[in-house]
Design brief:
Layout (H helix, E strand, L loop, with lengths): L2 H20 L3 H8 L3 H8 L5 H19 L6 H12 L5 H11 L37 E11 L3 E10 L5 E7 L4 H14 L6 E4 L3 H4 L1 H7 L4 E4 L9 H13 L9 H17 L11 H8 L1
Parallel strand pairs: 1-4, 4-5
Antiparallel strand pairs: 1-2, 2-3
Protein name: IS3 family transposase ISEnfa5
Pfam family, one: rve_2
Function: Involved in the transposition of the insertion sequence.
Length: about 290
Amino acid sequence: MTLSGTRQENVYLAIQAVQKEERVSVKLLCQIAGIPRSSYYKWLNRKPSSREQENHRLTHAMISLYKKVDGIFGYRQLTLHLRQQTEQQINHKRIYRLMKLKGIQSVIRRKRKKYVRSTPQQVTENLLNREFYAKAPNEKWVTDVTEFKYGNGQKAYLSAILDLHDNTIVSYVLGHSNNNRLVFQTVKSALQAAPNSTPMLHSDRGFQYTSVKFKKMFYGKITQSMSRVGRCIDNGPMESFWGTLKCEKYYLRKYKSFEQLKKDIDAYIYFYNHERLQAKLNGLSPMEFRTKAA
């Protein structure tokens, strides 16, 4: 069925529904819709084509999945998940058209991060140099801290480390203060999870990463790399994750307490690691891709 044909079908379905519920005559409804009665009765008595039947099944599965994730998926994510569910090569343009016809779209919205300059004590070169690819797990990590608000203007801070091999969030800590303890605990947890690794850790020039204490604590355990001043794109994958987390979870509701915020962040990071499929990971979730590599 063509796109225009599918739209016409929506008109027929509306006439059918109103006629059954309101007992309005088909003649009047067809006049209001501007279509011949013969066309409506032809549609009513037709046998749906295989393409129509497939579109109906896809639409049902699409809406079910869309509701399950509270509307955060756009056509790309819906396509990935529907491909996995149906084990078919579904074209993303088809899902985009079906979404348009059903009047649904991703509820996420983007916000730009403000860059805050710091006065570094010790800095290192940008060794990562935007080579956002790693051959194996725990080879290259990127990290950052981002801010959230809850209650009456209270602030919380999330520190996280992302593995460039599979985009897995290997460790994260949510705290009330943006301090050394927050960052140090994040790095410690990541190293504990990968005890025999000596990864490159790329960050911005925030005060925690450039402090003498940080360097002493993790000397010999990691190789530091830092973004250039004012170049957020040097830490692009981490910035991308913050945007995804905030758009798909944080911006969708108001948080009254730290506990509410933490519960949603815990749930989302589990969802991101284990369930959210990524095209660049061959349609797998980060943990699925990581497990295959192992």
